[in-house]
Amino acid sequence: MSDLRACKGCSFLTMENNCPKCGSATSREWQGYVVVVDAAKSDIAKRLGISTNGKYALKVR
Fold first, then answer.
1. Which of 31, 24, 32 has its CA nearest to residue 8?
2. Which terminus of the chain is less hemmed in, N or C, by CB atoms within 10 Å?
3. What is the 3-state secondary structure (H, E, C) of 13-59?
4. Domain 5-60: CATH class, spelled out
């Protein structure tokens, strides 16, 4: 998991330099993550403003 990078715009976790979801730059400095399996039914996803399934960082620098 050390290869994962977090998007500075939407916090999506990826291995790429730019986010495949929103195109923003990514950072190697992030902490914690949440996995969203069903964004439509998830109260946590709604609270975090996440509308699609995937792994998301909780804090991105």
1. 24
2. N
3. EECCCECCCCCCEEECCEEEEEEECCCCCCHHHHHHCCCCCEEEEEE
4. mainly beta
| Amino acid identity, position 24 | S
Give the sign of the dihedral formed by CA 34, CA 30, CA 13, CA 43.
Answer: positive
Q: Which long-range contacts (CB under 8 A, 24 or more apart) does 46-55 make?
A: 52/21, 54/12, 54/13, 54/21, 55/4, 55/12, 55/13
Structure pTM?
0.90
Q: What is the mean pLDDT of the chain?
A: 95
Domain ranges of the chain: 5-60
The residue type of 4 is: L
